Amino acid sequence: MARELTEIIKKRYNRTALFYDWMDRMIPDEWRRRVWQEVRGRVLEVGVGTGANFPFYPPGCRVTAIDFSPGMLARARGKLHVAWVPVDLKEMDVQHLEFGDASFDTVVATCVFCTVPDPVQGLKEVRRVCRPDGRIVLLEHVRSEHWFLGPVMDALNPLVLYLIGSNINRRTVANVRMAGIEIEREEDLAGKIVKLIVGHPGEI
Fold first, then answer.
1. Among 26, 28, 105, 109, which residue's Cα sits nearest to residue 68?
2. Name one GO molecular function term (predicted).
């Protein structure tokens, strides 16, 4: 079932790749800078999309960037020239990463785990491929805990999921902890709905 759902979501993102750059403008440049100030060494970007983060890659790092959508990767390849560092693009599903344990110093994702069919499994894979002394940096929108807004997000979620393949009511902080990632810092960037989460794998 999870594999079938992954294929459905992939098809939706292949479909939206042509206008995804417009959707991605909802993430301000300042938020992207905040994320990429946290990285070092060998970096894995999960869910690279159409490459909106390329201009923010800091000099000196080595980046492998993955996405499960061929349509998204095709758009990203056209932007490689704006990256400050070489980028190795790969088609890959975060739920089944094809890297060895402890392969990366930093793993980054920006608004990705709202999409992954099994977010805890994806986060467990992130934890596995990150070095024990490495860093996991996530920019994610989450379900509001407000008494009114939270249920509204729940009600709208099926429509949003159908249209673009994204869930707007994920409890991502809880999912991060369920995956065994130890949270060092959690910052609210837009109310309590958009969060910067910085953590590390801890003991595996």
1. 109
2. demethylmenaquinone methyltransferase activity
pLDDT digits (tens, 9 = 90+) for 43-88: 999 999 999 999 999 999 999 999 998 888 999 999 999 998 999 9
Q: pLDDT digit string (tens) for 113-156?
A: 998 999 999 999 999 999 999 999 999 999 998 889 999 999 99
- Which H/E stretch holds residue 105? strand 104-110
Q: Where do we find the tokens 């910052």?
A: 187
The token duo for 53 is: 């983060």
CA distances from 11 to 32, 97, 140, 163, 165 (A): 26, 20, 22, 11, 9
- C-alpha separations of 204 from 41, 96, 112, 124 in Å: 21, 17, 23, 10
